[in-house]
Specification:
Helices cover 49% and strands 11% of the residues. The strands form four sheets. A six-stranded mixed sheet has the order 12-14-13-15-16-17, sandwiched between helices. Strands 1-2-3-4-5 form a five-stranded antiparallel sheet. Helix 20 packs antiparallel against helix 25, helix 22 crosses helix 24 and helix 23 packs antiparallel against helix 24. It is globular. The structure holds zinc ion. Zinc ion (ZN) binds next to loops.
Length: 602
């Protein structure tokens, strides 16, 4: 867990305008900045960034969020990674990090050496007729090769020496997995006579390489080893290049090899990514669902492909939602995506993706395989097998439907199947979690707060955000006036911020990201999205503020008064203290009302 105060600190030191400007060209328009929305297709700009609120909002598609939200949505980062990224840019170190702290200067050194190696491989490709001929024979144009930064590692034991000079003997090439050192301390290049595919992280840094042999040779594909930069189970080849296409098409297709990704892009299908020689992991699936609500796994039609598909199926069950779907595309046995699109064309591949097998059907097909449902034994066996998969499904409606299909298969009532699968209550969908929310496009789920903020409290919060100096005028009884609920908590945070860093509207974004309470989050979101209240003169602002405080006092007074009044009306005898209080409330009621009249008349 990252401490809330740290999150606020990071956001306080982040400027959302310069952050977003790095990805999207912004134009000044009034108090805000405008752009064509990066999250939906549009011709005229409806995407606005507010420097005072440190918040972005699109009037076209409803996308909105803070700097953290932007990185999550645009780069598909997790909340934690987005905070880390911003912290790094702000020169802060994430405290109590349970992952081993990597020294940023070490990471930067490794990234720099990868960059130099990549440049060397690209240069080598240009002067290698053999490698060029290979890529041409695979049908790749120079443009696609350039887009993916494809290069060539020559057939040379110390080719990289030319690129790195004296640094070749340093720590970085070894730690980055570019060279191997033998027992005698002699170093040589890991990749030799291979076409080189740089593997990028979500920021576009080169964190590894995949090398493919030209012609025959073993292994056919060679990847960088695990290094401080590169963790195979987390990375997806081609994700950085595919982001735009995924966003536009609304689907991401997972294939098995980098040549498939590149070939699909060459033929016009840009939203494919590949795992890097590992089975699909839960981390992969999380990353994929952050990019798109629809993930299609594409596997070769052979036995190995089916096994890989089964693993992908198991990895995604607990990450589904009723608004998130996974499908499975099995190509004819003689094809991989590369050969398929080459032979059948783009349209045919689109159709195949569109018609991919829904997860439910693939799951049932897997369960039924090798079973003879004509026998009671095999019908029981089906339920037994289902027990390892179906209870994990995190999409409640889908789960129920699959249970119903199983109940038909095994000729038992739904309740009996549910009992056998030990599914008690319908599984909760997982998108209520505000930190893990897949996409900022959807409004966060809002539970109604325990005590709904009244109009007065809401207006008071707005006024404070628009005119932050008013916070000095908040009376001592303000928390009491705010009652019990999320608004009180928010006011408390405002006061805390006032006492530490000084209250400022830019603090809102930090508060929004730091709180995990949904009711509070909903109110903060409303404040972040609210247009400024229309009050022109300073004295009118103060008057409005004073009026609101009086209204709150009247409301509290009335509340206490009517509670006692009701008891009297029911014939109850109040004790002397209560009677005293009742009198005081009656008098204050008068005083407050006349002070409001006076205030209004002023
Ligand atoms: Zn938009």
């Amino acid at each position: 867990m990252i401490p809330e105060s740290f999150i606020q600190d990071v956001l306080a030191r982040t400027d959302i305008v310069s952050l977003i400007e790095r990805y999207v060209p912004l134009k000044k328009g009034g108090a805000n900045y405008m752009a064509c929305c990066p999250f939906h297709n549009e011709k005229s700009p409806s995407f606005t960034v507010s420097p005072t609120k440190q918040f972005y909002h699109c009037f076209g598609c409803g996308a909105h969020g803070t700097a953290v939200g932007f990185l999550m949505e645009y780069n598909g980062m997790s909340f934690r990674d987005a905070i880390k990224d911003l912290a790094q840019q702000a020169g802060l170190k994430v405290p109590e990090d349970d992952a081993p702290q990597q020294d940023h200067s070490q990471i930067n050194t490794l990234l720099a050496v990868m960059e130099r190696a990549a440049r060397y491989f690209r240069d080598q490709l240009r002067v290698s007729p053999k490698a060029i001929a290979y890529l041409k024979q695979r049908g790749l144009t120079g443009e696609v090769a350039k887009n993916f930064g494809i290069g060539y590692a020559p057939d040379d034991w110390q080719g990289l020496h030319a690129a790195l000079g004296a640094d070749y003997e340093g720590a970085a090439p070894l730690e980055a997995g570019l060279v191997i050192q033998n027992d005698t301390g002699r170093r040589y290049d890991r990749f030799r006579d291979r076409v080189m595919f740089p593997i990028l992280d979500q920021r576009g840094n080169i964190i590894g390489f995949g090398g493919r042999v030209i012609g025959e040779g073993e292994p056919k594909y060679l990847n960088s080893p695990e290094t401080p930069l590169f963790e195979k189970g987390r990375e997806l080849y081609g994700l950085f290049q595919a982001r735009q296409a995924i966003r536009e098409s609304g689907v991401v297709v997972v294939v098995e090899g980098y040549m498939d990704v590149v070939a699909l892009a060459q033929f016009g299908f840009g939203s494919a990514v590949a795992t890097l020689g590992t089975a699909t992991t839960a981390t992969h699936i999380q990353k994929l669902f952050r990019q798109s609500d629809k993930v299609v796994f594409c596997f070769d039609g052979d036995n190995a492909g089916r096994k890989a598909a089964r693993r992908a199926l198991e990895a995604c069950l607990d990450q589904l939602g009723d608004d998130r779907e996974a499908r499975f595309l099995f190509l004819p046995p003689e094809h991989d995506p590369d050969s398929f699109i080459r032979e059948q064309g783009l349209e045919a591949f689109h159709r195949a993706v569109h018609n991919a097998l829904p997860l439910s059907e693939f799951l049932l097909r897997e369960l039924r395989s090798d079973l003879n449902l004509g026998t009671a034994e095999d019908r029981s066996r089906l339920v037994y097998e289902a027990k390892t998969l179906v209870p994990k499904i995190s999409a409640p409606v889908l789960q129920q439907q699959i249970v119903r299909m199983i109940s038909e298969d095994v000729e038992l009532p739904v309740e009996a199947v549910l009992a056998a699968l030990e599914i008690k209550a319908p599984t909760q969908a997982r998108f209520g979690n505000s930190f893990g929310n897949a996409s900022g496009r959807k409004a966060p789920r809002q539970r109604s707060p325990r005590v709904a903020p009244t109009g007065n409290l809401r207006q008071l919060l707005r006024l404070l955000c628009a005119y932050p100096t008013l916070i000095e005028k908040l009376p001592g009884d303000i928390l009491e006036l705010a009652g019990d609920g999320p608004v009180r908590d928010i006011l408390q945070s405002f006061l805390d911020i006032r006492d530490t860093d000084g209250f400022n509207p830019t603090s809102l974004a930090g508060l929004y990201e730091a709180t995990s309470d949904e009711a509070r989050k909903a109110i903060l979101l409303e404040l972040l999205q609210a247009p400024p209240p229309k009050i022109e003169r300073d004295d009118a602002t103060v008057q409005e503020f004073d009026g609101l405080i009086i209204n709150l006092r009247i409301a509290l007074n009335d509340h206490e008064f009517s509670a006692l009044h009701q008891r009297i009306m029911q014939g109850e005898l109040l004790n002397p203290d209560e009677m005293q209080h009742y009198k005081a409330l009656t008098e204050r009621k008068q005083a407050l009302r006349s002070s409001r009249t006076g205030q209004n008349g002023a």
